[in-house]
Design goal:
The complex is a heterodimer.
Chain A lengths: L14 H23 L10 E2 L13 E6 L14 E4 L2 E4 L4 H13 L9 E5 L5 H13 L4 E8 L3
Parallel strand pairs in A: 1-6, 2-5, 5-6
Antiparallel strand pairs in A: 2-3, 3-4
Chain B lengths: L7 H4 L5 H19 L5 E7 L5 H6 L6 E8 L5 E6 L2 E2 L6 H13 L6 H4 L1 E6 L5 H12 E3 L6 E3 L4 E3 L11
Parallel strand pairs in B: 2-5, 5-8
Antiparallel strand pairs in B: 2-3, 3-4, 6-7
Helix pairs in contact in B: 4-6
The chains are: A alpha/beta, B alpha/beta.
Amino acid sequence: MKIKTKKPAVADVDMTPMIDIVFQLIAFFMVITNFEQIQADERVKLPSDSLAKPPVVKAADELVLNIGFDRNAEGEITDPQAYIFYNGEQIPVLKFGPKFEQEARIYKQKNQDPKDVPVILRADALVKTGLVQDLIKLAQENGFTKFAFKATQKIE
Amino acid sequence: MKLRSSGREAEKIEPQMAPMIDVVFQLLIFFMLTLNIVEPEGDFNVNMPITDSTEASDEPVLKTDIKVRLVANEDGSLNTIRVGQLNLGNGPNVFAGLNHEILKIIGRPGSPITKDMEVELESDYNLHYEYTLKAVSACTGRLDPSGKHIIRYIEKIKFAPPVGGPNAGS
């Protein structure tokens, strides 16, 4: 009679599902961080430029403003008035002064000088330049002096 | 003799769903990533300290400023760019032309005079923002041939009050 020789029970770890899951997690977090980085508003169609490079040093605090138009599902502008999309509100550009005041006050409470806080302007390509300049003026009146214009990186 | 029963139920092969779903998810996420929903964004930094316009006019003009004037059409598109007295028109290469003009003024990129130089952009109120941004870009520099590094021309950009617009009279 043949006796079955018992092999030492080495638990063979099945790597396949583990690798699968690890890949899933990696991909998931890659997607998530991509979305998290920018406080973007999908209604703003940024202009593009090849010189627009992501900042090397990211400021700890920044005030991101999305300036754009009301657009329908096809992306056509439905209202010629430009708005700032701010915390879910839609504020006409020239009425943004009080909000700047409020932001400046918050930064001061956190012991930060508004002039060290960059204001990131994500303006739609079709916004009037004068309007953007008016907005900058409003910001300056409340102590903000650093500005950055956002553009999508054009890859040629 | 006993025949091995080749029952019909034995022919049914259960497809393994788990690895298939795994792979499908991988593909899905791979294509989601490659689609590039969120385009990479970059920015142009502009420092605009608060200055009194009266104070500025009293100051003797020591530094050499380059004045760039952007003229708009009625609909907000670009009509022409003027650098000093030179008219660059509005062709497809107008921003390359502006870039070239700036290079001619500063001599070579990174030369010491660029530190004290400022570009003053004066644009029409209704000009679309994309043209202003392109002008800012053309003044700040260009990409080197490899396309990886930026050759800086002039770092300091300032804006003159817009021409025309609702507040023109006041």
